[in-house]
Amino acid sequence: MRVDERPERRLLDVTIEVAGDRVTIVAPRGELDVDTAAQLRATIDGLLARGTTRIVVDLSGLGFCDSVGLSTFTVASAACARAGGYLRLAAPTAFLARLLDVVGLLQRLPVYATVDAARHGDTAGLVPPPDPGPQRP
User: What is the value of pTM for the model shown?
Assistant: First the structure.
């Protein structure tokens, strides 16, 4: 009997919703990493190929994101901008907001506290950089 020693990988589930204001919500659920980032990238590329250029990525369902997943956001944002649109990130977990800040993406990409704020581009809903805590002397 053969035993597969690799743990079962959770796949990335990506749903797409077109909001009434012609903004498309892309909601990845699961883990965004080296094994699944191409799936999200293909989803966004497919939307761009059909002329969809206003995209909000709902991050609330991501349990994990590595550097390859993060690069997917920057590449997709640039592609949307070249097409005359935008890519906005929304509803990151506290961990993901901190990660986006540490790697400098919180300052480079628009990240909103809620999907609704991202849909409307409500600057009051932008995620501020996390409090770094007490400063050490």
Answer: 0.88
